[in-house]
Amino acid sequence: MGEYATYIGKQAEELSERLAVLGGLPISDPSRFKDLAYVEFEGNDMLDLRRMLENDLHSVQKVIDAFRGRIKNASENNDYGTEHMLKGTIFEYEEMADRLEHYLATESLERNLTTK
Q1: How is residue 33 annotated by DSSP?
Q2: What CATH number is associated with residue 103?
């Protein structure tokens, strides 16, 4: 899961650079991050692994849906650079969703927790 967090950070940086190239302004107000985020804060006491992975999967699926809309918009506006970048990014998010679904398979979590 560490590679997942590293990838998301890298993608956020690349997307913000693309936004700057297009003349956009980054968000600087922390409350706007909360308003626009696809991920909901789970709380400091979240310890249920299955629930955490389910929340991650739900968030990744929201990102995939949002990217599909952004890809369509970029294509319609002949923004081929953004379209190409987002297509590569959505592929990686689809891979993440597939891995999360694998981890959430009932026997997968139970087998890994009981065999150690």
Answers
A1: H
A2: 1.20.1260.10
Pairwise CA distance, residues 71 & 83, whole Å: 5
Residue type, 96: M
Instruction: Please provide the distance, in angstroms rounded to a whole number, between the alpha carbons at the two ends of the chain.
Output: 19
What string of pLDDT tens digits covers the 116 residues of the chain? 677 778 778 888 888 888 888 888 877 787 887 787 777 766 676 667 888 888 889 989 999 999 999 999 999 999 999 999 999 889 989 999 999 998 888 655 555 555 55
Other beta carbons within 10 angstroms of residue 36's beta carbon come to 8
pTM score over 0.90: no
Q: Which of 79, 69, 65 is nearest to 24 (CA)?
A: 79
Interatomic CA distance for residues 24 and 22, integer angstroms: 6
Domain count for the chain: 1
